[in-house]
Design a protein that fits this description.
The protein has 6 helices and 7 strands; from the N terminus they run αββαααββαβββα. The protein is mainly α. It has a single domain, classed as Four Helix Bundle (Hemerythrin (Met), subunit A) (Up-down Bundle).
Length: 204
């Protein structure tokens, strides 16, 4: 299994743990936007955000098998995937995705995404980032991260410097994000920490 797939297993495990503990009363909550870019600059209903995660994960086995969306059927996973048992559905979809990820042993094989082809390691990093951000925001919304207070400030994308990318921190100040050379190791560390936190909360 390639490194990026191993990080995917950690990130997805943490995400499912957080999402599976959403209470019935919380499904109507709204997640604030976190990116200042068209298409991601509006608040999102919590159920819609989790359903989008399920949609992405449902595609993983077919994408890793080298199939195109047209071969599978572009509308196969459209609509509400969560149904009346979101936790059960999320676990089922995640199990299929992680089993497929465990079989990936080459980093350069192409994945046929909706926007075009990309290497499988790049595909995994897109999934890993999405899972980490969504799981973090849901945990903050639910009050499950100790010491996380105040609103989630939007991140401004695309402001690059010689030292990396400037982004907004929680207090609204700017901080330099890691360069591409260190992003991989830090993302893995973040996913491992998220998994540990999820384990602590699940036991309470």
């Amino acid at each position: 299994m390639i490194h990026e797939a191993a990080v995917f297993l950690l990130a997805d495990r943490a995400a499912v743990s957080v999402f599976s503990r959403i209470s019935e009363a919380q499904w109507g909550d709204i997640l604030p936007h976190v990116f200042d870019m068209p298409g991601a600059d509006q608040p999102t209903p919590l159920r819609a955000a989790i359903n989008h995660y399920a949609y992405d994960n449902a595609w993983v086995p077919d994408m890793l098998a080298g199939r195109t969306m047209d071969e599978v059927g572009r509308d196969r996973f459209d609509g509400d995937l969560l149904g009346a048992n979101p936790a059960g559905v999320l676990q089922q979809i995640s199990t299929a995705a992680t089993r497929a990820a465990e079989q990936v042993t080459e980093s350069g094989i192409p994945v046929h995404c909706s926007y075009g082809d990309c290497p499988v390691d790049n595909y995994f990093w897109q999934l890993n980032i999405a899972r980490t951000l969504t799981a973090h925001d849901v945990a903050v919304l639910a009050g499950e991260i100790p010491g996380a207070h105040g609103p989630i400030h939007p991140v401004t994308l695309g402001e690059r410097t010689n030292g990396g990318v400037l982004r907004l921190t929680q207090d609204g100040s700017t901080a330099r994000s890691p360069t591409a050379e260190t992003a991989s190791s830090r993302a893995r560390s973040s996913a491992e920490s998220s998994t540990d936190a999820a384990a602590r909360f699940s036991s309470t």
